[in-house]
Amino acid sequence: MAATPIIFDRSLRLRRLLRAQAQGPEDFLLRAAADELAARLSSVLRDFPDALDIGAPSPLAAQAIARRGRRVVRLAGHRAFGESPNFIVGDEEALPVGPESFDLVVSALALQWVNDLPGALVQIRRALRPDGLLLACMIGGGSLGELRASFTAAEADLEGGASPRVAPFVDVRALGALMQRAGFALPVVDSEPLVVRYDSMFGLMSDLRAMGATNSLAARGRKPLRRATLMRAAEIYADRYSDLDGRVRATFELMWLTGWAPHDSQQKPLKPGSAQMRLADVLKPRSRDDS
Length: 291
Description:
Blueprint: H1 10-23, H2 28-42, E1 50-54, H3 60-65, E2 71-76, E3 87-89, E4 102-108, H4 117-127, E5 128-139, H5 145-158, H6 172-181, E6 185-198, H7 201-210, H8 227-241, E7 248-260, H9 279-283
Parallel strand pairs: 1-2, 1-4, 2-3, 4-5
Antiparallel strand pairs: 5-7, 6-7
Helix pairs in contact: 5-8
């Protein structure tokens, strides 16, 4: 079996989350995800008495799905992220829960940071009881394209080549295939863009730092970023991505995963050859006598 590629330095990612927590985190993106999580879950006519919230460094997602009669367990990577009796320290890549332990698993903006996403999805599916639901939000591949392009152009101008600075987030099509491979029934993946405006690129970078979302790539460059390169990137960003009022745009793509643990009661595709009408009969033109 091939080894899992190491894309993220997860210990560095945790340290940056802890620093953001200590200095006062920026949570507008997590709030947006939690609000949409609650809205999507409200349309599902099920009780889900036992729920697991995976990876969020704050209780926002757990609070969004809380209701009378539902036990919500939070799982995150450090004790500093939770104090409730239903909080457990754990890793999204090695879930410390037994099989068929929960009716509902949610995750808000955490799964995009795992190195073994296929393995994490398999573990989530195993943790769900039959007919249990996964509802998760991830940062998608369309995120921060403006920042990535600006730094790439600046480093090409001044450094002779670009180093990786923005994570290679997964896209919708690949994520749908991963859901199927992990064994989820009725998988659905969709995405929504969220455009945020700033006075300059530096406002965006400040927010990313306050989210603990700065560069945690294992292959990141180790040389300090030169001031000249940083200023050139900001200049390119303002030139290419500013609105008429001078403010710049930053795009986040929120990707939503919905999938069910298999159960006999779920709808299943028809077997080949079981159709009651031929496709040719449906497509042929109708005559005046048929109307």
